[in-house]
Specification:
mainly alpha, two-stranded antiparallel ribbon, 7% strand
């Protein structure tokens, strides 16, 4: 009986050690999940926007290809190499980009083009704006429009300033004033 006592005590001590270690690891994981991203004060969506802004178009496409293939480690490594961010920041950025997919937006060095002043900026893509009411549908396609400018035009139209909205649409597209007024009339609601 005495020969079994020492091995049983050792076994009991090892069991207690395993239980205490499991609890400590569980608490640490819970604390990590509660803290969220390593950069406090920013939501995951904001972090995703900032992370996407650091990538050029090819890097953006390649990173999302890795995320879509479920290659999280390769995506983190690629982001780290592409941006020069640290490992933890890269991990958080890739997690945020996976949770909140971001479209590619070209970097704007001088800021957005103003609607009212100067010559309209030409973008490397053609933007399509479509408005419809009932069976009537109008479309404006231009490389001088983007989401921001079209959003301002819609806001002007919905606030009742249809003349300014039509003038802005004419300025940022190749439509006549009459066509712009017909288009704006469909946006008023």
């Amino acid at each position: 009986m005495e020969a079994l006592l020492v091995p049983l005590l050792i076994l009991a001590l090892v069991g207690v050690g395993v239980v205490l270690t499991a609890r400590a690891v569980g608490r640490r994981r819970a604390r990590t999940h509660q803290e969220g991203p390593a950069q406090p004060g920013r939501s995951s969506a904001e972090l995703a926007q900032e992370a996407a802004a650091r990538l050029d178009q090819d890097q953006h496409r390649r990173l999302y290809a890795l995320i879509a293939q479920g290659q999280a480690m390769a995506a983190i490594k690629f982001y780290l190499e592409a941006t020069g961010e640290g490992l933890r920041a890269s991990r958080d950025a890739v997690g945020a980009l996976a949770a909140h997919p971001q479209p590619f937006r070209p970097r704007q060095e001088a800021g957005p083009a103003p609607v009212e002043e100067g010559e309209p900026q030409r973008f490397p893509y053609r933007y399509r704006a479509i408005a419809s009411k009932g069976e009537v549908t109008r479309e404006v396609s231009s490389n001088m429009l983007n989401d921001e400018i079209y959003g301002r035009i819609r806001t002007l139209a919905r606030s009742g300033d249809t003349a300014a909205a039509a003038a802005a649409l004419v300025r940022h597209s190749d439509v006549s004033l009459q066509q712009a007024e017909e288009f704006i009339a469909l946006l008023e609601d």
